[in-house]
Amino acid sequence: MATQYTQVFTRTYITNLPTQAMEFPDFPFPSDLRGKFIPWQKVKDYLFAYADHFDLRKHVHLNTDVASVKRITTKPVSSGDAHQSPNRPQWLVRTTALQGGGSNEKVFDAVLVCSGHLSVPHYPDIPGQESFSGVQLHSHDYRHPELYTGKRVLLLGGFQSAYDIMIDLYSHTSELIISLYELDVLGLGEQYKKGLLPHNVRTTTFPQAINGSVVTFTDGETFQPDVIIFCTGYKYSFPFLDASCDVTVSEGKRIQPLFKHMIHSRYHTLMFIDMVYLPLDFSLAYLQVPFALKILDGSLALPSEQEMNKEIEADYHDRLASGQKPRHAHTYIFPPRWLPSSYCDDVVSFAGIENNMELKCQCINAAFVEVCKNVMTFREYDYLDPKPAQ
Ligand SMILES: Cc1cc2nc3c(=O)[nH]c(=O)nc-3n(C[C@H](O)[C@H](O)[C@H](O)COP(=O)(O)OP(=O)(O)OC[C@H]3O[C@@H](n4cnc5c(N)ncnc54)[C@H](O)[C@@H]3O)c2cc1C
User: Fold this and answer.
1) Interval 279-307: pLDDT, tens
2) Ligand 1 atom showing the smallest separation from residue 4 Cα
3) Which of 56, 83, 106, 268 has the highest Cβ tally under 10 A?
4) Closest alpha carbon to 375 in 367, 365, 387, 383
5) Is any atom of ligand 1 closer than 6 Å to the C-beta of 370?
6) Which residue ranges form the domains of the chain, and what is each CATH number?
7) What's this model's pTM, rounded to 2 decimal places?
8) Is ligand 1 within 6 A of the CB of residue 258?
9) Residue 46: pLDDT above 90?
10) Residue 154 belongs to what H/E stretch?
11) Residue 4 pLDDT > 60, yes or no?
């Protein structure tokens, strides 16, 4: 594990999910925190406590960068040994010590890629962006609201980063505009129209072009911001995967070929944990890892590579046909078919494993409903009660 851990959290950052949506099923948050939105430091404490409780620290190699993963072909030791089939190659992993240098190579029977997907910024392609005369940054680099005191700020994007930064920032800025994609999943435009957003915040359409200090939006409106903050999401990036892994990432948003958004359809010993974009975040590993283990111990047979690829393509094309964008290839926030619970149900029924995500999905749905109603107040409810007060 490399420790250039992504400093995505501001000093004041409060989680955007209630604790029981985030917690691991076998390690509850302390009872006084259940159902609440908590400061990020308490999440860090929780993760450290988890590592101590299960005595995990001895397994973690800190300050160690996975520099490369290469597929190696092994000769079958005996014919008919399922663990030696071409679908189950081994992997040569080279690591580099971040402090003091030095590298190490080791062969593994399987690789589970858990390198995260919220640290390499994605920028949309806006004509003239390079000509912008003010300050531009990605939400990944946003920290201190005081830096924007008295400024006119444009937030691009209408999802979690945009509303979190808006809430943190609006009282410092003179004017704050949230520029929404055509898919306004959280209904921030509607919330603005209803007067639910702060007095100096409004929403608008997405930029069509930038020319010097002027941003022109698709509806023809213009704005001259001092600062543009791109809340436009992240890209998948696996620079450590050698070409022999046969993994492609198209436009930073679609990893191929991943069956159930997780398993390499040709090399079953290469899997990707928690790459699905759905608000279950790190607890999703509790669903995906039992699935992975069943494949690795041979107790769950996978369909043929062709069948898996067919399902992968069908899922992608159905998404596009239903109005999603190519960037949503692994996203589960679109009702009714691509919701967090749909992904969990699919994995559970395919793998024959316990569904430990049901309550979490209900909790997320309840929170999501409140976010869509009023982004300024959804954290006020206690989500221990699955249906928050109206
Ligand atoms: C602004 C923001 C707010 C969020 N708020 C919430 C929230 O309120 N609630 C919630 O549940 N989730 C939240 N999330 C999402 C949450 O942070 C992620 O779901 C979670 O961190 C995913 O865990 P992970 O272990 O899969 O990946 P990560 O936490 O990204 O961990 C990946 C690790 O892999 C390491 N790594 C990467 N490449 C290499 C390599 N080549 N070699 C070695 N190590 C490597 C990284 O250094 C990192 O330590 C938020 C995310 C962001 C960006």
Assistant:
1) 877 789 999 999 999 999 999 999 999 99
2) 47
3) 268
4) 367
5) no
6) 52-119+235-363 (3.50.50.60), 123-232 (3.50.50.60)
7) 0.92
8) no
9) yes
10) strand 152-156
11) no
